[in-house]
Amino acid sequence: QRDFLTYDGTRFTVTAFSGWIKGVPHNGFKVEVSKGIILHLVDEVSSWLPGDRIVVASTDYSMHQAEEFNLLPCPECKSNQVKIDGSPLYLHIGEVIDGVDMRAEVGLLTRNILIQGEMEDSCYGQNQCQFFSFDTFGGHIKILRNFSSVHMSGVELKNMGQQILGSYPVHFHLAEDVDERGGYERPTYLDNLAIHHCFSRCVAIHGTHGLLVKDTIGYDTLGHCFFLEDGTEQRNTFYHNLGLLTRSGTILPSDRSEAMCLAIRSHVYGNYVPVPSTDCMAVSTFWIANPNNNLIENAAAGAQDVGIWYIFHRVPTGQSEGQYPEGHAEHTPLGVFYNNRVHSNFKAGLFIGKGVKTTRASAEDPREYLTVDNARFHPHQDADPEKPRVPAVIDGLIAFKNNDHGAWARGGDIIFRNSGDGTFPTDEGSSLEVTRSIFVGESSNFGSQGGQNSYWGKGANGEYRTLPRNKTFPIRGFQIYDGPVRMAKCTFKKFIPTVDRYSSAIGFFMKNSWQISPQNNVSQILMEKSVGLKVFFGRSGQWFGSNDNDGDKMSIFHDLDGSVTGYPDTFIGRADNYLLRHPGCLTVPRWNGVMCTGKFAQLYIQARRPENLTLSIARAAYHSHPLRLQGVNRGAPYQQYQPVVMLEQAYVIQWDGRAPEDIILYPINFNRGDWLCVALCYPRESVFQVVADIYQRRTGTVHSVKHYLAAPSRASALSRTGERLFYFDRASGYLFVHLQAHEARKGHSYCSQQGCERIKIMAHMYPGDSWSCGPNPFPERPAAAQRPVSRHPAGLCRACGAPQLAITSTPSVKYIRIQIQSLSRVDVQNHLTSAFIKVCCVLLRLKW
To answer: Where is the CEMIP beta-helix domain (predicted)?
Structure first.
């Protein structure tokens, strides 16, 4: 009797027998492994033929676990099966695991038409041979404007591209509109291409709009693979493309690895030495320089740095210079982003943020032109910041096994859904939102050693697995940074700390010197039983450093409904932050956190002359527990400090030197009528000018200027009568100011609808005058009574968590949750038998 078993894509011949072996009676099984392994694919692949070559993507942290195979004849295969020659070296997942579709992508590299470069055996001449041992001078196809038609389909491109600007496998060069808008009845497209083992990008779209790129593979290439060049390119659509094994190249700073970045200095100013981590090291499979492009059902399955990067040119660059006004790209609404996959990237799966340097190297800024620079995404209607915001929607992102971040976004409005700002943003009121998503800490995708995976160690369940970055690297599901950010209807699972590393569902950006907004909030969150640590504020040590930067100390978020803490309308901050605390707070030592009720906002402080002082701020009720802030921009014209404060309280501000001559106080996130009392330490003989105004940051204009008058007493200056008064107590050295918001604030805006209210304090100080002050000029009194954290925890939230049970790249497929439970001791004693559940057919990702 013979049976056949298909298991994990491997065909085994199993023979059951009863008989004699060498004269000895024996019952058993003989296993004969046939040549070749059968892969089960989602789609029909009968057009794939023996002798064709395929690539199976990595499903682990290293992109180098992608593997190539030749196809063998397989008369027994079904229409969705192929047989490969050889055995995989690595595990390639073929399942939806823990609710996330982690199936490996499988791409066909063979096409009927082959265009390839003729290559030498090794690198030669002026072809950057210090970085490449192989020949990188391949062929290239350049398409210029005013063509009759271009439709490329079913073509294999191999050994194409050069490490020279403008020489790429397929290059649309300043072709302008190539769809109906350009007069083409049959819009231009690239369809079903296989671009592999190439030496400079895959598809370069330069000054070209309306191009369709679909069903195309970019595999084992140098530099940004699917590449938008100048920041002007719009309305292009990338549909169902696969990019993997995207390596570093030399052409642009953003293409370069650390070694390339340090060595290539021909276009910097003087003796400037590039800083790889900030100037370079950004090579990406999809490099999207203008947000008005469509990405639908693509897979970025392994890049040296990032899978999909939306980057913003402050002005158009290169040959497109001058075509758009300044800031156009960063204010342009996002095109369609739907159902894309990002995994096995060394830095991040998806990155939204940063820009490129748009000026040449100079003494003022010696970095090379097009070096990675800072920028934020602030989409508005018609790319006009004076018009309403148009939220950017990231719909259906699957991100797994990326070493640093699954997704990173700064700016706003940006909304993530159905998916697994700065010190004081230029665009007040922008926000980020994550909804209806699943976060998994340590999935059942254990991975496999090798392929440049550096770390192998025990997971939380005791089994060995691959690990990101380092065996001790902290795992954080939702990392709070800047703000305001909000999260709703999300599910967390499998965040369990170990003796080697922290793992928390909610965490914070590490070594953070930036501000964090108290408007950050969460609601309708489901923490499954497998979550061992819901929140963690960090502790000093590896990765967290001293955990003493300004942003580290000010970490905070608001649990609106109690779905995380169990207590509704509760703010969670770091345990040692006495700017937040009051007697009604609850300390959570395991989180290094504290839960408090109250009203919180930010006091944004700018200081000039000097700009390098350390600020000490204490709430008067806890004056013996000051927070010391270093500021965020040492050497900037204005130093910036951003403490989160409890409203309707008194605060004491001192410095580690003589006070700055100019100080500006902004009440940030204050609603009309919210107030603080502030005492600032100055030398005893100081003379002051105090002015209130409203600053429109968009236009740089100031209005509603009002001068403060000197008050006869501290009590009169701090009274809430609406008069603008200050009082300087020469005996103590403290200047007393009542800070109150008079204008209405809307939505997530940091400032009022009229602009940013502020108080400017200009002090004339004499040399040699003593500047030390006592610890607390306010009357000693106990901490103000605040509503205590509710002693009645929130009830069970039945509507919490992501509504989907599986996040999948084939959304039409429905999944159900199955729980398998072994028999208990009581069941065995009662002679119950177990149920047997067989799950058949390991699936690999649909074909490319």
So the answer is: 136-350
- β-strand pairing of 600-608 with 639-641: antiparallel
HSE (side-chain half, CA atoms, 13 Å) at 687: 3
Helix (H, G, I), strand (E, B) or coil at 287: strand
- Asked if 351 and 300 touch (Cβ cutoff 8 Å), the reply is no
Using CA atoms, how far apart are residues 123 and 309, in angstroms rounded to an integer?
30
**Of 305, 310, 307, nearest to 346 (Cα)?**
305
Beta strands 151-153; 189-191: pairing state = parallel
Cα separation, 302 vs 307, in Å, equals 7
| Domains in the chain: ranges and CATH | 2-108 (no CATH), 438-598 (no CATH), 600-764 (2.60.40)
Integer Cα distance of 510 and 119 in angstroms: 47
pTM of the model: 0.89
Q: Are 319 and 275 in contact (CB under 8 A)?
A: no
* Amino acid letter, 824: S
Q: Distance between CA 647 and CA 722 in Å, rounded?
A: 17
C-beta of residue 227 within 8 angstroms of C-beta of residue 252: no
The secondary structure of 184-227, three-state, reads CCCCCEEECCEEECCCCCCEEEEEEECCEEECCEEEEEECCCEE
Of 150, 339, 172, 154, the C-alpha closest to 240 is 339
- pLDDT at res. 423: 34
* Closest to 694 in 3D by CA, of 667, 663, 724, 726: 667
Closest CA to 344 of 195, 267, 427, 445: 445
Cα–Cα nearest to 195, from 147, 232, 243: 243
Strands 113-116 and 155-158, how do they pair?
parallel
Spatial separation of the C-alpha atoms in residues 787 and 211, rounded to whole Å: 59
Q: Of 266, 457, 454, which is closest to residue 360 (Cα–Cα)?
A: 266
Give CA 786 to chain center in angstroms. Answer: 36
Q: Report pLDDT digits (tens) over 190-233.
A: 999 999 999 999 999 999 999 999 999 999 999 999 999 999 99
